[in-house]
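Field notebook, page 545. I keep forgetting to write these up properly, so this time I am using the form the group agreed on. The chain and the ligand, cobalt (II) ion, are recorded exactly as supplied. Prediction of the bound pose follows.
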Amino acid sequence: MKINTIKTKAFPDQKPGTSGLRKKVTHFQQQHYLENFVQAIFNVASNLKDGLLILGGDGRYYNSHAIQVILKMAAANGVKHIMVGENGLLSTPAVSHLIRKYQAIGGIILSASHNPGGPDGDFGIKFNIANGGPAPTSFTDAVYDISQNITEYKIAETKDINLEQQDTCYMGAMKITVINSVTDYAGLMEELFDFPKIKSLFTSGRLSMCFDAMHAVTGPYAKEIFSKRLCANVGAVINGIPLEDFAGGHPDPNLAHATELVSRLNASASAPDFGAASDGDGDRNMIIGQNFFVNPSDSLAVMAANAHLLPGYKQGVRGVARSLPTSRAVDKVAESMGIDCYETPTGWKYFGNLLDDNRITLCGEESFGSGSDHIREKDGIWAVLFWLNLIAIKQQSVENIMRSHWLRYGRHYYTRHDYEALDSAQADKLIKELRAQITSLIGNNYTGYKIVLCDDFSYIDPVDGSVAENQGLRILFDNDSRIVFRLSGTGTEGATLRVYIERYISDPAQHDLETQTALSGLIKIANSISNIKQRFNRDAPDVIT
Ligand code: VG1
Ligand code: CO
């Protein structure tokens, strides 16, 4: 096998964001762009030499091409063994599991998650380390540094590998195993949840479900787990065939994008009892009931309060964690259980140390992500199974489970307003100006709301002492309400400003308000503090979740 050393020049924009390097497909298609970044990964993860690498992606456009390139570069860089998903498919949680199960050195996941795909869509690449979790900032910074000084990369000159069937072959000295994308992951789920109990919900006709795979990676996982192993109703999985362009949609499981699922759940006559969706790479989840939406922050709180009822968590919950912008619903549960609740910056990588150090069992983010110590990623199908198992135990609807939770702990009304494709310089200026004035806001009074704390969130990791600064501007009011401003680290067009708004109401008589109405006072305050509408000449957010 011939190994070529190719001369290249650095690209200035290869700094990974919240979750890997994410750019337009056309950007990745520039000559050497993908190769430079992959070489930088191999340089930093030098222990991949003589070790195992897990490789797969969400099936979006450019996935197959990138996999062949990475295989050839891995062979040229001395990787000993690669396990790759059949047809190049592996969900993010499945990669995390495979890394742990087979003691791999790491994994490469090709995905831009919930961003649209296709030739004009987005592509992305993430690296996960030996614990199964996203590489920490120290690793991604090192990759970026190398990418800025790169002059050459190594690649084998050989033919493409057939990924269409499970098989073992060699590329030079490197072993390649094409594995079933689903089997190991489905096995793990069977260990955590009571499959016979969930199955009896379906076979006795007590529950029907609809899972929207959004033409992304979870289709094969959902069919194997929900339809085959749990015998769910006919039509339990929709949009279950992964497509390179996700049929033109955003594979983003929320009310704005999972519209087919939502209309099915709201069609009174024939509506299934339980609805769920996952994103491009299978790590996010949305849970809904008939005409009822479960806010992801609430979902985490419900999980924390009930995990001990489920087989995989019967030892109880050691502690919980949530990202800064996630509502504090889970804090209430932790408080009443007398366990620790950690507040971290946005992105799953910040949960890794807490999980490895056995400080937490469950963690989650407002962005439709929840997970546990079973792997080191958020996990969409896992969350769906968690809810199904809970329904089987409680014999209650999604709505009733949520309402009884509010009754006990109070309700956190919550919304996120996204302003997309803003001029980056203007968006940076807004954040800078807010940061400069933020402490002077303490004590300000708005009708019914008094500001008691304002800061730019910084986090000191309690396990390794690493520091993450400037993670979001937070404004806390005396009645437990909160506003957070931050810029997205996953967008590929200009800047996306996220405004997170939360209001806590314990009085059950007020648990039936429409969310945007309940939050209207705070929405006005957020705008008057930041002047978003005037600054960017926008009437309304682009996406409300
Ligand atoms: C977004 C979410 C964040 C999540 C990240 C990756 O990041 O807000 O909570 O961890 O996406 O999720 P940002 O920086 O755009 O706000 V995924 O499903 O893309 O791997
Ligand atoms: Co995702």
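OBSERVATIONS:
- The chain has a mean pLDDT of 96.
- The longest strand covers residues 411-422.
FOLLOW-UP: compare against the apo run.
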